[in-house]
Amino acid sequence: MERKILNKLIKWKNSPKRMPLLIYGARQVGKTYTALTFGKQYYKNTVYINMEGSTEIAAIFERDLNCERILRELSAKSGQTILKGDTLLIFDEIQSCERALTSLKYFCEEAPEYHIIAAGSLLGVALNREKYSFPVGKVDMLTLYPLDFEEFLWATDNRKMCELIKECYEDFLPNPLHDTAMDLYKNYLVVGGMPRAVSEYMDTKDFDFVVAAQKSLNDAYIADMAKYSTPHETTKIMAAWASIPAQLAKENRKFQYKVIKSGARAYEYETPLDWLRTAGIVNKCIRVREGKMPLPAYADNDSFKVYMVDTGLLCSKFEIAANIVLSSSPSFDGFKGALAENYVMQALVTNGISPYYWSSQGKAELDFVFQDRKGNIVPLECKSTDNVRAKSLKTFISLYEPAYSVRVSAKNFGFENGIKSVPLYAVFCLKG
């Protein structure tokens, strides 16, 4: 599967200021596969070191952090020569060996000519920083997300459709294959972007196999919660995780602690929610009081919405049958908007955008507000159908007079009265 992060990896390889690279991301988003594919394509050889459960590897780093000695022993262990500039050295599951994480600082300072990529699930939550220091300022960092809709089109042999969508977005002209593109979008909602689920879809075209893969991933996340937290913390993390579909099912999708359990308070569940966010399996959208620059200055951190990192996992967790989504069944109308919002949120985050939502004293609420690369504050209204009546968007426009606005819906491309009509399948075209 072709991933957009490959271009960033090439820039990293060629950068004169290159430092060891840490790749973040939720479990099974493709971090290891991407690093190995990159190594095989752009280096003479790749040395892969899996640090999970290996006492021999851990012992190499325990002795001291002399880079030349470490490289010599890793070379002996792997049976491969590690060459300056020509070998990609991959440290996988680096959270299992904190001394290896600390060593990245020394590789940056004392052996920068060696190319090192480190990856690991739950890097942010697994590390005991009281024992070993994080190499602040000594590593480059990238985050890998599930496949977005564009990458999904690439993977499913729909590259020409992808190019057509981008052409229509550039000129805001109607897409002649709009209905076909909407059908592909609905497929993506069900499959999502987790590589294993996409692979099952590509191989079988059978959604039962896709759901089985998704349930396995959800189970793996639950296992991680138990592995990297105390039993007391695990109970709270799992309760917060289990509440997310119910949070999204509410008409007002603002996160409410009482949905987790009756009488729950913020101080009890702030840390569990932060665990889920740091693990990369949820995205948090914070409210802003004003649609002005800079948006973070007007953030109300006590009011937020929580979305899952992947619509496919959300459908699986909610036990939403594929045919319900694909056929736009009337029985699904109540949750269709929440699923579309979750999709838009993950698309914006994947594109490097930091989205907020806006509300005005209970009178109006706008799904998303973000800053584009030119510095404009952009309001975005999300609709799951072609009914685009948007009172909240009009209220925002009258208050803040943005340079332009975006309405994401099931309607075709268009641009009038300063509002860009962007079909749901084209959100990947929006850039931060």
Number of strands: 13
Helical proportion, percent range = 40-55%
β-sheet strand percentage: 15-25%
Number of domains: 2
Quickly give the structural class: alpha/beta
Through-space gap between termini: 24 Å
Domain AAA: 18-153
Domain DUF4143: 224-384
Protein name: ATPase
InterPro entries: AAA_14, DUF4143, P-loop_NTPase
Characterise the protein shown here.
By secondary structure, the protein is of the alpha/beta class. The chain has two domains: 5-143, 3-Layer(aba) Sandwich (Rossmann fold); 149-429, no CATH class. Helices cover 47% and strands 17% of the residues. It contains 18 helices and 13 strands. A hairpin with a 3-residue loop joins β8 and β9. α9 packs across α15 (311-318), α11 crosses α15 (311-318) and α12 (231-249) crosses α14 (266-278). The protein is globular, with a radius of gyration of 23 Å. The protein starts with a helix and ends in a 9-residue tail after the last strand. The mean pLDDT is 91.
